[in-house]
What we know:
By secondary structure, the protein is an alpha+beta fold. It has a domain at 2-112. It is built from 6 helices and 7 strands. The protein has helices at residues 9-18, 33-38, 44-65, 118-132, 136-146, 158-164; strands at residues 2-7, 26-29, 74-79, 85-87, 95-98, 107-112, 151-153. The strands form 2 sheets. Strands 1-3-6-7 form a 4-stranded antiparallel sheet. β4 and β5 (95-98) form a beta hairpin.
Amino acid sequence: MRVYLPATLPTLRRLLDTGCLDAPPLAGFAVTGALREWYAEGDQEELEYAALTLATRASLRLLDVDPDAPPRRAVVVADVADGAVLPAPALDRGAVTVGASVSLAEVRSVHVDHPAAEADVRAAVESVVAADLGSEDAAFVMEQAEGHELQWYATQELGPLLELS
């Protein structure tokens, strides 16, 4: 199953250095039955983009708890065994828990903000909790960051990406 795992640049560094993401369980997002039902008009590509978007927002929450991380959202896209993925509908319609270790070999791509997005991402990190609680002003700040498309990187590009960051 393809999963979208929120990350930060330090998470990507650990992935590159150790060959694995952090120890399971891992919070992520996927095209779950509930997401498919909610987004009934979407094709597979649109559903995967919706899961990626959910993971991108979750990356902001990781940045909120790691103030030393560069303010750039990141998402790791991996194909893991179906049996390792459990839906977590209480969290979100696309939320899943990955109960197995995710190795670099299972990673298909990584998506990361361009450095030009840092100011908007930093503001979104400061607003993420207020947005979750319903603040319209904070939601506007979140939309500014979400206006930046994440860049796509192959796994062999991780080293050069992290050297430039």
